[in-house]
Amino acid sequence: MSEKIKIYQIDAFTNELFKGNPACVVSLSKWLDDKILLKIARENAVPETAFFVKKQNSIHLRWFTPDIEMDLCGHATLAAAHCLVEHLEINSNKIRFETLSGPLKVSVENGIYFLDFPSRPPKKTKLPDSIYNSLNITPIEVFKARDYLLLFENEQQIRDLKVNRVTFDQINLGTGGVIMTSKGKNVDFVSRFFTPQATLLEDPVTGSAHCTLIPFWANRLQKQKMNALQLSQRGGKLICEEMDKRVLIGGEARTYLEGHFFIDK
């Protein structure tokens, strides 16, 4: 016997198909075994798969890459909210998720989803040799929260960055990664995000990285509201706001696929 389960694939932090960051969203009636959830995420072969279970007044949300369960993921949270609003017809412009990172709220305004996430301001630190030796351009300053944050001189350097994966993969950051950032030409700041030892080296658009980017740039630019671009091949646009111990991360979404998959009971 097989169980038929609904699945959606959604491009987050974009209003165009084939851009932004793709996430699969799976609505479950009850939690499956963690090993099965990870196998589903591997089969989907996108940066993140969001699984959620509705329980009375809350929605329990979890995120899996093809490799591990994550403690926080922005684009898959946005995709889950979009799925609930556009496809499961949730009658609310405010959605509350229960997650490994605590309660997370998403508000919807004129087609833009605003994620209310924890702030993770970075502290100055030294760069491990395995990261330093993997880069073709040297950062001017280095910081760390969950992720390392590497500051560069300008946007062109961010675009020109290359990572030697053999050297880069020598460091284990758990659920963390490495943010590369600079001031932007036409936006307040730009970034790219890389994860060592991951199936997907560069993440197209990383909401959780902006938990660190927003307080960092708010302090540097002395601005509360900012616009940002992630300069991956797919690219993504983010609306950012510093809220002291919280950050707001806004973006749009487009549904690419709606279908079903089957697992053995």
Walk me through the structure.
The structure is a single chain. The chain has 265 residues and is an alpha+beta fold. The protein folds into two domains: 2-119 and 250-264, Diaminopimelate Epimerase, Chain A, domain 1 (Roll); 123-232, Diaminopimelate Epimerase, Chain A, domain 1 (Roll), CATH 3.10.310.10. It has helices at 34-44, 74-86, 129-132, 155-160, 165-168, 210-221, and strands at 2-12, 21-28, 48-55, 58-64, 69-70, 94-99, 102-109, 112-118, 123-124, 141-144, 148-151, 178-183, 189-194, 202-203, 225-230, 236-243, 246-251, 253-264. It starts with a strand and ends with a strand.
Write the layout of secondary structure elements.
Elements: E1 2-12, E2 21-28, H1 34-44, E3 48-55, E4 58-64, E5 69-70, H2 74-86, E6 94-99, E7 102-109, E8 112-118, E9 123-124, H3 129-132, E10 141-144, E11 148-151, H4 155-160, H5 165-168, E12 178-183, E13 189-194, E14 202-203, H6 210-221, E15 225-230, E16 236-243, E17 246-251, E18 253-264
Parallel strand pairs: 2-3, 4-6, 11-12, 13-15
Antiparallel strand pairs: 1-2, 1-18, 3-4, 4-5, 6-7, 7-8, 8-17, 9-10, 10-11, 12-13, 13-14, 15-16, 16-17
